[in-house]
Design goal:
heterodimer, A: 78% helix, globular, B: 0% strand
Amino acid sequence: MTFALILAGLVLVLLTGVPVFAGLLLFATALLVAVEGKLGGIGDLVFGKLDTYLLVSIPLFTLMAHFMIRGKVVDDLFGAAHTLLRHLPGGMGVATVAACTVFAAISGSSVATALTIGSAAIPLMIRAGYRPRVAYGVVGAGGTLGILIPPSGPMILYGVVSDTSIGALFVAGIVPGLMLAVIFAIYAMTSARFSAQRVATEPRASGLEIIAALRRSFWALTLPVLVLGGMYFGVFTATEAAAAGAMGALLIAVVVYRNFGWKDVWLSAIDASRSSAMLFLILAAAALLGNVLTKLRIPNQMVDLVTQYGVSQIGFLLALMLLLFVLGMFLETISIILITTPVVLPVLAALQINPIWYGILLAINLELALITPPVGMNLFAIKAISRAPIREIIVGVAPYVGILLFGLALVMAFPPIALWLPGTMNYK
Amino acid sequence: MKAFRCVVHWLAHVGIALAAVALLASMVMIVYSVVMRYVLNQPVTWVDELVGYLLVACVMLAAADALRQGEHIAVDIVTERLSARGRRWTAVLGLLAVAASALLLAIEGFDMVVFSRMVGLLSNGYLAVPMWIPQMLVPVGALLLLLSAIVAVGAAWRGEDAAHDDAIKPMGIE
């Protein structure tokens, strides 16, 4: 099949270590020339893809997270969570999951979540007597919540490519995200209880300590309420929520924390611009590939194939999840979304699969992609913090791969886990 | 050659500075339009269109600096197992691919600009600007990226600057 060949060719090109945007662009251009015999229209396509109001939300959410990090607003998230949860068995693991969950609601990135929480949590956990692999596992897995719990960069990309409401996608991510966080925490508690190397539980925090911890993390909790509440109640569009969130983060950093200067504003904006540059060039290159695939009538062929063989909803989804899982082992999340979505969408429509539900299934799959070797960005992030051998990190994360697969199966079997909350939304 | 490198670095600096300004300006304008809509009940008509152009500016003008900082995403599980010489070769080839892509974007972008000017294309929104002005950002940014890529190929050829891969950049969106 043409698509399988193209997909395999593309994976091979990217494995040469060529920057993804260049690999995609040259690959797509070569295909275009092979199909049409000439170039043309690439400039318009690139400009048209970038000139998209909705996409501005991605750098703005990144900017918001930068303001919070540079302003030290989220500095002690792990400390606060530890105070509240330390009396539980495996208390530091549970605190890590909780801190990741809150950070995920501020940042749209899993790697940022793993890096920020991990650099606080990993050394403390190891010092307290946890086995290193336990610490790596819980940070790696907790970090992946960053792209399922809104805001989420990958979900915005999916929403833009598939023309699905980003507000609805965000709201749909909340319940599955919290559900996975709870399962992660339960696993951290039970595995600590039955571990050969038990760490003594710590004493419960006093009332005063709890108040101090809540005061420390109060401001970090206000922004998710503003951003998500604003979208849920239809006050903001996604882009407006991102701009308001970034502005709110800036105000908190400047007015409440008072350690934020022009230099910090400037460096945050530069970092956010840089990361969006590489991201959006990939987006533009993938759009060209999508265009060529459409010219080759590959999306139509997929629909024909599915209807011809009478593939059921669940059969198609299972096959697709398997494909995404395998791709996730070798590619990073952005390419996976951008390459598969245009081909999959017509089939979703033909089989009447809800695109919001699929968006959540895709996001959980991308969480898996972040922690499945050989290419898993969270694995690399933890390696960068801890300097541990990658094998040790993979072993630590392995049980959470199982948990995520279980979560994926749950959301597939019970779509309301994802679809109930957006159903109650005040649509805009 | 050294002067050329300095000029390219300086241009990349200017590019990223303009990109950062574009991003901050977008934030301020969007908040302004929300405030106008809810508080003064006067929706601002031109913000959405202008913000779209500013995003093009942000992306195209930051690309060269992102390359210089080694921020372009690549899959390096195979290449990191190669010998030092193999790594140098793959680095050079990867950067040549970036240069080729940038050249392609510059040429195609320039064609787009020339065509828009020829037919006098205006934007669809309230601003009705001549389209070639925002479209110009594509060839200009691509040219900047091309220059940066050429400098980077030279550096990689001499075996400099292969170390940046070790650091994970914290703030992509993955």
